[in-house]
Amino acid sequence: MENHNTMDSIETLVRDLESARSYTTTILNTVDPADWYRSPGDAVTHIAWQVGHLAVAQYRLALVVVRGPKPDDEPLISQDFAKRFAPGSVPVSSLKDGPSVEEIRAVFERVHTQAVAETRELNPNVLDASAGFEHPMFSTKGGSIRWSAQHEFTHAGQISLLRRLLGRTWLW
After folding, report:
1. Whole-angstrom Cα distance, residue 107 to residue 100?
2. pLDDT tens, 77-133?
3. How far apart are CA 108 and CA 58, in angstroms?
4. Which of 52, 78, 150, 164 is found 20 to 30 A from 25 (Cα to Cα)?
């Protein structure tokens, strides 16, 4: 079970969120926006869906699980956007059917900025509170924030693979 008893835990969670985002952004910055909606070969996903999904997941894991939804979250991430990139959603096949790369990246960054800001302001006692539902990777609110960062690394790997399948060379 997760243990988050010190202020250092909040600092660690913020570092984890920022580290995952830095890594993902480094990869994304090497992908031509024209390739975001391309699904190489028989792939069932594309980079646009991966990034949109990361925004939705971080919103839910680092914000909603921790403090619940707020009425003023709509400008942060719209319900339509959340539905479009939720787990189990089907990636649309072209830019004409989905949001622009700029819009996806803007939501991706807005949610992240908010998640980091709200995590920094948390009372450390909140971290050990129950997430309120069963999940295979966490049971507490602090664990949900940590999983947000770990989940992002998982999808960064998928983005890296898609990038390679689109003909790009290795980064490192």
Report:
1. 11
2. 999 999 999 998 988 877 778 899 999 999 999 999 999 999 999 999 999 999 999
3. 9
4. 78
SS3 140: strand
Q: How far apart are CA 55 and CA 105, in angstroms?
A: 9
Cα–Cα nearest to 5, from 131, 141, 127, 137: 127
Q: How many CB atoms lie within 10 A of CB 128?
A: 17
Long-range contacts of 91-100 (CB under 8 A, 24+ apart): 91/39, 91/44, 91/45, 91/46, 91/48, 91/49, 92/37, 92/49, 93/37, 93/39, 94/37, 95/36, 95/37, 95/48, 98/37, 98/48, 99/48, 99/52
SS3 6: coil
In this predicted structure, what is the pLDDT of residue 43?
83
Concatenate the DSSP letters of all residues of 85-139 into one string.
TSTTPPPPSSGGGS--HHHHHHHHHHHHHHHHHHHHT--GGGGGSB-SS--SS-S
Q: What are the tokens at 45?
A: 């996903």
